[in-house]
Amino acid sequence: MLTLKFEEIINELEALSNPEDIDGMASFGISPKKTYAVRIPELRRIANKVGKDHDLAHKLWKADYRETKILACIIDDPELVSEAQMDSWVVEFDYWEICDQCCMNLFRKTSFAYKKIFEWSNREEEFVKRAAFTLIAVLAVHDKQAVDDKFEQFFSIIKRESTDDRNYVKKAVNWALRHIGKKNIYLNKKAIIIAEEIHEINSKSAKWIAKDALRVLKSEKVQKRLNK
Hints:
By secondary structure, the protein is mostly helical. It contains 15 helices and no strands.
């Protein structure tokens, strides 16, 4: 069984710490209050040495560093994750990286992912709402067994939230729409219709989301791949 103790992980993070990278992280909107400034490939290497460990994940999350939280979402066991845990973690998201890492590495693999999309899309907090649309995007890529209806049901909330002009929300809404529309030719046509409807909304955010989505979804590259 692969495992590292909490103290060993902290020691390794301290050894890898590179404070000079903090300014560079901030330029990409990565602005955690506490960070060792360790890069993602190094965190994945550490996670591979740990394996899956639900209890250790909780301890790392509570340590409240960027790196410990990212490690927590990589090593946690999605089958042991509860709705309460997801709701507790999501309200602590305060920048895009931790939101996206949790959605990609952990939340999408839980049995509550689709339910949480609808719940969190109705929330006002910027990164809770972003989590809803990030989940749509990553599920569109990774849930290969899902029927088209599973993604069609998200078009209404994509359209509803397209007027949210907060940067990290509108980018995630756009991301969700694009990834649904790249799954197959049927969803591509549906996504294009929705994007065209969104473009008619009197909102700068909606028009930006729609214009960018249409550019991608109608592109020669995407159409060629989907029409093979």
